[in-house]
Amino acid sequence: NAPTTRRPIAPLPDRLISQIAAGEVVERPASVVKELLENAIDAGASRISLRIEEGGVRRIVVADDGVGIPAAELPLAPLRHATSKIATLDELERVATLGFRGEALASIASVARLSVTSRTADAGHAWKLDAETGEIQPAAGARGTTIEVLDLYAATPARRKFLKAPATEAAHCLEALRRVALAHPDIGFEAVNDGRAVEPLPAGGWRERALAGLGDDYKSAHRLVDAEAGGLRLQGVLGAPTLNRARADRQFLYVNGRFVRDRLLGYAVRQAYSDMMHGDRHAAWVLHLWLDPSLVDANVHPAKTEVRFRDASAVRSFVFHAVQDALREAHRPAGGSAGQ
Ligand code: ADP
Ligand code: MG
């Protein structure tokens, strides 16, 4: 049946465009946490704190001691497609920062109340931007940036309905923190959930942090992998096949420091474990894959948890063999204690 009336084609208002885009970037409070933590890392922070209230729905605060944002640029931070991280196609193709789309703060601001307080090294004091009003005021604060997000989805009740209980959302937020922390052992993280401090992941190298992230059981039952071939490097901790799990809830894959989900590589690791583990069980592992940024594309989805490899089959084969070799070594009779 043909429509009897039609409306003229018209560009959508900016705020509505951001609200539509926010559906992809800000799925739940944990997505906000991930984006804010990534911004803090891109800012070169050495300490990052996360505070959440009511599962992050009521309040999320991420504070860092990074380079900060100059007062003159503060109003630009929550603008859609405004970024300090890339400026050209060439830079996009070899991007090394976690962010580059200039979308997160804009999306968050469209579905929550956002404020950004920041101070650069050469500023006499901090400045605070209220993204709703665009007002900027002098504020207290040391060098770095504090971003506060209040009342997520308050204005979009349809989305709010999809949220789970606060405890579940809080668990997702803390999982987002864990994912980031595992990839950045040099950064100190602290978290407070509804006023209670969350036990932090220990400082030290990525190995200590990975083991803490996997769980105490794995401390004496793991293998290290560190392999390099053809410009690819794989480092990580492989949980012993005997400590397999019913769910694949302790598998952390990073590509150039970015947490990703990759079916192909997940499958390669699974295959490498396959002759030591039952098919319906899951291994626990933390793997960091490093390669030339121009050989991998993170610009697949706004949440950037998917990547595309220029040569996927070479990467898959490398990961499979590196993991298999490391696991086989563990089974050599005179191989010493697990985990070296
Ligand atoms: P992107 O990270 O893709 O650039 P965002 O919307 O997340 O986009 O952030 C926009 C800009 O705001 C960033 O490019 C950066 O310049 C600035 N910014 C955001 N968070 C921070 C932070 N914690 N420290 C310093 N600058 C920040
Ligand atoms: Mg960002």
Layout of strands and helices, then pairs:
Blueprint: H1 14-25, H2 29-42, E1 47-53, E2 59-64, H3 89-93, H4 104-111, E3 113-119, E4 126-130, E5 136-139, E6 144-150, H5 157-160, H6 166-183, E7 188-193, E8 196-198, H7 206-214, E9 222-229, E10 232-239, E11 251-255, E12 258-260, H8 263-273, E13 285-290, E14 296-297, E15 308-309, H9 312-330
Parallel strand pairs: 1-7, 11-13
Antiparallel strand pairs: 1-2, 2-6, 3-4, 3-6, 4-5, 7-8, 9-10, 10-13, 11-12, 14-15
Helix pairs in contact: 1-4, 2-6, 6-7, 8-9
This protein binds adenosine-5'-diphosphate (ADP) and magnesium ion.
Write the CATH architecture name of the largest domain: 2-Layer Sandwich
Total DSSP helices: 9
Strand content: 15-25%
CATH top-level class of the largest domain:
Alpha Beta
CATH topology-level name of the largest domain:
Heat Shock Protein 90
pLDDT below 50 for ≥5 consecutive residues: which ranges? 334-340
User: What sequence of helices (H) and strands (E) makes up the elements?
Assistant: HHEEHHEEEEHHEEHEEEEHEEEH
Main-sheet strand order equals: 5-4-3-6-2-1-7-8
GO biological process, one term: mismatch repair
Family: Belongs to the DNA mismatch repair MutL/HexB family.
GO molecular function, one term: ATP-dependent DNA damage sensor activity
Domain DNA mismatch repair protein S5: 211-328
